[in-house]
User: Fold histidine kinase from Streptomyces pathocidini.
Amino acid sequence: MTTTGADAEAGARGAPAGPWWWARRRAMVLDVLLAVASMIECTIEGITFADKARIPAAIGLVLGLAAGASLLLRRRWPIAVVLVSVAITPAEMGFLLGIVGLYTLAASDVPRRITVALAGMSMAGTLLITFINFHQDLGQEDSAPLWANLLVSIVLAIGLTAPPLLLGLYAGARRRLVESLRERADGLERELSLLAERAEERAEWARNEERTRIAREMHDVVAHRVSLMVVHSAALQAIALKDPERAAKNAALVGDMGRQALTELREMLGVLRTGGERTAASAALAEIATTGARPTQEAEEPDTLTLGELEKLIGESRAAGMTVELSVEGEERSYPPQVEQTAYRVVQEALTNVHKHAAGAKALVRLAHRDAEVAVLVENGPPAEGASGARLPSGGNGLIGMRERVTALGGGFVSGPTDTGGFRVSAVLPDGANT
Assistant:
């Protein structure tokens, strides 16, 4: 079905469908009015033609009504309407029918070669009939030159054919341009919707990443400090009456560790506060949501830990009664903050696990500075005979968190039991990790 510009535009805008082939009711009303006007014109011209041709007037009346009524079909079958106007041209009928039919044909999606051919037929018919009528009306005695009659006929034929044809071509081109722009706008809207969905997915992923990071940090801080506090509390309970001086010392250590745990938690939770200034966590979330990349460790950590604090960390475990040996290999040097932070957390979590699961076991911490990497190893022996564990709960996330930290920096992580009944944790980190 061929449609004109008005129909296509109405359909594209989602207007309610009109009756039959009309897209809108006002389009139907317009075509009915044009058809009525064309029927009146064609009826009058048909009766006049019947009188000249000496045929019954009823034939001219029926012919005029049928020809004029064909204008109702112009939006559905514009080719048929133009063919009807060409067919009745010898009867000098269908002036309005021809003009509206040519306009509708040019504005429709009919192939241009068909439009040009039908327009040529209409112009040729108008030219021929006009030339014959001029020649007959002037009479033989007042006959104008042949070229004058031909020139007037050509001008009249072009005047009746070219304006509706050109106007229809313009209307069709404008309608196609509007449709193209509308399709492009719809495509851009779909793309924007898709981008918004992807941005929402990235934001959700970023929130999950941030929650995971915060949970991992809180686990590292709480598990280590609380493990030491529980060990010291157990020792305090055992020696409270036998050695008051040592009990007081252990109590002071418990208090210090509790304050340190609270301080670290306060610093960590501080990045979650919303305020006027941009926090480190919000910066990390924005970086993930906009680029889809993992944020740098500097943006994640409120307080960066270094390998230089391993001595202090190990000292806390020694104070809790654990035998810990520290071995450093290679020339000491500085590393990117995220590398030192991760290495520190690996050692911290490994020592926490020794407190939890291997009470009284001896632990070895080895730090190796190599050409392009730094390696940490924490290995403990089996629990001491008769030693009672701290009975601390384990969520099973410590090793998972260590592995996530190390692999995020492009390093390698290995953990597992040893042949002697102990446990080993090993991590290798590149010194120029690209995060």
